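Handoff note, outgoing to incoming analyst
You'll be picking up this chain. Sequence as last confirmed:
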Amino acid sequence: MPYAGDVTLSRMQLHRKLKALTNQSATEIVRHLRLQRAAELLRQRSASVSEIAYDVGFESLSYFTKAFRDQFGTLPSAFNYHPQRSACSDCQRALVSASAY
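Most recent structure output, in case you need it:
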């Protein structure tokens, strides 16, 4: 994720731009991308749930579990191993748009 200084916008301008483009804050976008990565790793069964949670940047396993359940509707330990999906298109558009400024 680009920093506000990298795109010549103030922190607040970047926040407003991301919110306008995606209807999500920068924090929500980052959380969504982290959870998408966690889902990919869970599909690959590459590590335990707690290792994946920490690998993708969550410091609290209980918060990771809550956020994962909110996004995917299931606990990470019971996650269905569906074919890999790409990251959210709104998130990708926001990152591309933000880097253009």
